[in-house]
Amino acid sequence: MIEALKKERLIYLDNNATTPLDPQVADKMCWFLKEHFGNPSSVYPIGRAVREMISQARENVAKALGAQRSEIFFTASGTEADNWALRGVLDSQPDKREIITSTIEHPAVLNQAKYLEKKGIKVSYVPVDSLGIIDLEFLRAAITPQTALISIMHANNEIGTVQPIETVVSIARDHGVPVHSDAVQSFGKMDFDVQKLGVDFLSVSGHKIYGPKGVGALYIRKGIDICPFIYGGGQERGFRAGTENTIGIVGFGEAAGILMQRGKKDRERIEKLAGSLRKGIEEKIPKVKFNGHPEKRVKNTLNAAFPGLEGEAILLALATKGISVSTGSACSSESEEVSPVLLAIGLRPEIARSCLRMSLGRFNTEEDIQEVIRELPGIIAKLRQISAFDPDA
Ligand code: PLP
């Protein structure tokens, strides 16, 4: 049991926003913090010891992704990995001035794409269908000799839909275009590896796999061209300078190691829990509609519309019961804006505003789920009464 959750008696169903630090990761990081202050670039033993631990962390992240150690580059976040992929690939091909991405990417990709547009890059946004799957014909037609990169996310953070990345790669290969995928939300939540996906670049983040915040990684396939992201000392083989976030990297590596040991079992258990939660909600609450693809999805993520209500009101009512959920991406949850992802799958704004995301994780229990199934129907009924919504109408 995670101490922070136990103390507050919290039920945490927002694992797509961030995951609790695994206690084993916390122990490793505390030990490291106390015992190892060396700069990994120093050649004497206290530096070399840290360099060795970074190397082990890189090995773990690489193995968990099916990559080689030399293909993993640590970054400050998943966001940085995404920014680097887009900008670095464009910089490495100055004769190509176009990229292709989708309408439902995380802001880490979308806002970088908007910035690039201001710099004169043409960006094509591939639309999605009502289940959140990209339009492959649109993608095919958008490729031109000017296309430098295709960036399509693996699993969506809000609705959980998983994109057919292998097909994207095969389309891209026909035109010699490299592919990047933001796998921040699929890493640890489903079984995949970079070889099977066939991608050239892939972003992941530590805090979505029960590791620390402020550390991520970009997988860069051996032999593919990309420009460095930060210039300075020669860290990360000259591609991402700056003295390493040693504690974060060691924690990320530990979290990736744990993922390899227990990831499959966790996923099976989480899938069952999410299944019971969905069933309980469907049985007890009228007029609920779940968003995203029914099968091609990360199974921990449930996104449901509660017509007639504001998702925000449900979220706040649940919070008073110690249940943490979200209305969408954590990065945009402070803004009033309706989720662009939910609009992109064709929901009307008032339905999009009625949606709630519940994302399960390693530390959720059957009791958590039963508690939510007990509390949520009463909350919905009460709020609908206040808003004079008639579920039978
Ligand atoms: N990409 C996706 C799909 C995400 O869900 C997130 C975080 O929510 C990110 C990128 C950003 O990762 P980080 O929080 O490490 O910057």
Q: What can you see in these coordinates?
A:
Helix content is 42%, strand content 12%. It is an alpha/beta fold and 393 residues long. The strands form 3 sheets. It has a 7-stranded mixed β-sheet with strand order 2-8-7-6-5-3-4, with helices on both faces. A 3-stranded antiparallel β-sheet has the order 9-10-12. Strands 1-11 form a two-stranded parallel sheet. The longest helix has 39 residues, at 246-284. The chain is globular and about 70 Å long. It starts with a helix and ends in a 7-residue tail after the last helix. Pyridoxal-5'-phosphate is lined by residues 77-79, 82, 106, 108, 153, 157, 182, 184-185, 205, 216, 330.
How is the secondary structure organized here?
Blueprint: H1 3-8, E1 11-12, H2 23-35, H3 45-65, E2 72-75, H4 78-92, E3 98-102, H5 107-118, E4 122-126, H6 136-142, E5 147-151, H7 165-174, E6 179-182, H8 194-197, E7 201-205, E8 216-220, H9 246-284, E9 289-290, E10 301-305, H10 311-320, E11 323-324, H11 340-344, H12 349-352, E12 355-359, H13 366-386
Parallel strand pairs: 1-11, 3-4, 3-5, 5-6, 6-7
Antiparallel strand pairs: 2-8, 7-8, 9-10, 10-12
Helix pairs in contact: 2-9, 3-9, 4-5, 9-13, 10-13
The structure holds pyridoxal-5'-phosphate (PLP).
Pyridoxal-5'-phosphate (PLP) is lined by residues 77-79, 82, 106, 108, 153, 157, 182, 184-185, 205, 216, 330.
Briefly summarize what is shown:
With 393 residues, the protein is of the alpha/beta class.
What are the key terms here?
393 residues, alpha/beta, seven-stranded mixed sheet, three-stranded antiparallel sheet, 12 strands, 42% helix, 12% strand, globular, binds pyridoxal-5'-phosphate
